[in-house]
Design a protein that fits this description.
It is built from 13 helices and no strands. By secondary structure, it is mostly helical. It has a single domain, classed as MetI-like fold (Orthogonal Bundle). Helix 1 packs across helix 13 and helix 12 packs antiparallel against helix 13. The radius of gyration is 24 Å and the shape is globular. The two termini are 35 Å apart. It comes from Actinokineospora guangxiensis. Its main location: membrane. It is a multi-pass membrane protein.
């Protein structure tokens, strides 16, 4: 019976695993191979150049500018998004006053916060093009003009453009984590919070000493997901930024440079090398984040 069950499981998984190998793992190996060539995207056998493409990356200022932008995203995007999401989740589930009950209409608030997740990234980019317009017709500049202030080039000022795009990323992402953290907080027995309140713990102390440790697994997963998202940003940067990554490369990211190098300059081998570098940067972050944030699991049973 056990042998028959094993054969059935192997037979059942064979096709999905084969599909995964062909359509997921296969392209990875193909990208690694192309990164060692000078292929220009046309028919014919690519010339093997070894690690020349990676040596070029070391001296490529555009590449390092994009890496720096990812470093900024990696710090700011998770911290701001998770901070806002935790704050609103705690208010939704435990209210703003005393006691442990959530605010009235918490389901409605969760739906409102989650709404940006329903919108396509391109639609969000088009929406915020109207918000960030550099003239008085822009939503933000219209508000500034109403109080007597001058227009601001939200996406045209090199020192401001990246932060404007990060704000959009936070706006779109925070709703998902509000719902995620709300579910985690709802799973914590109310008796625990009531016991903390009886012991005289303030709401801030209760949050950091009780709520946060009990939902650490959710927070860890959210941190990793947002960190991986920080290594992307292609769609919003392509739609919102001036000249796709501008002004003067102030908002460029690696996925955008990979696309530009491959499909604008027809340097597919060099673009593949960038892709491989991005793959290992993302993988390294995920492994380190899981390692550093690992804690003993708290059993509520």
């Amino acid at each position: 019976m056990k042998r028959g069950s094993g054969l059935f499981i192997v037979g059942f998984l064979a096709v999905p695993v084969l599909i995964y190998l062909v359509f997921v793992i296969g392209p990875y190996f193909q990208a690694f191979y192309l990164a060692l060539t000078d292929w220009r995207g046309v028919t014919g056998s690519p010339n093997f150049v070894g690690f020349d493409n990676f040596a070029r990356l070391i001296g490529d200022d555009v590449f390092w500018t994009a890496v720096w932008h990812h470093a900024v995203l990696l710090v700011v995007l998770p911290l701001v998004t998770l901070g806002i999401a935790l704050f609103f989740s705690f208010l939704i589930n435990h209210g703003a006053g005393s006691g442990t009950r959530g605010v009235w209409g918490s389901r409605f608030y969760q739906a409102v916060f989650f709404f940006p997740q329903v919108l396509a990234v391109a639609a969000v980019g088009v929406l915020f093009q109207a918000v960030y317009r550099p003239d008085s017709a822009g939503v933000l500049n219209g508000l500034l003009n109403a109080v007597g202030l001058d227009n601001v080039g939200w996406l045209t000022e090199p020192n401001l453009a990246l932060w404007s795009i990060i704000a959009v990323m936070v706006w779109q992402a925070v709703g998902f984590y509000v719902v995620l953290f709300s579910a985690g907080m709802a799973a914590i027995p109310k008796e625990i919070h009531e016991a903390a309140a009886l012991d005289g713990a303030s709401r801030v102390r209760t949050f950091f000493s009780v709520t946060l440790p009990l939902m650490w697994d959710s927070l860890q997963a959210a941190w990793v997901y947002l960190g991986i998202a920080a290594f992307d940003g292609f769609a919003l940067v392509a739609v919102l930024s001036v000249d796709r990554g501008g002004p003067d490369g102030a908002t460029t990211v690696l996925p955008l440079e990979i696309w530009r190098t491959a499909f604008t300059f027809s340097k597919f081998g060099y673009a593949a090398a960038m892709g491989v570098a991005l793959f290992f940067l993302t993988l390294t972050f995920a492994v380190l984040a899981l390692r550093v944030t690992r804690r003993e699991r708290i059993d509520l049973a």
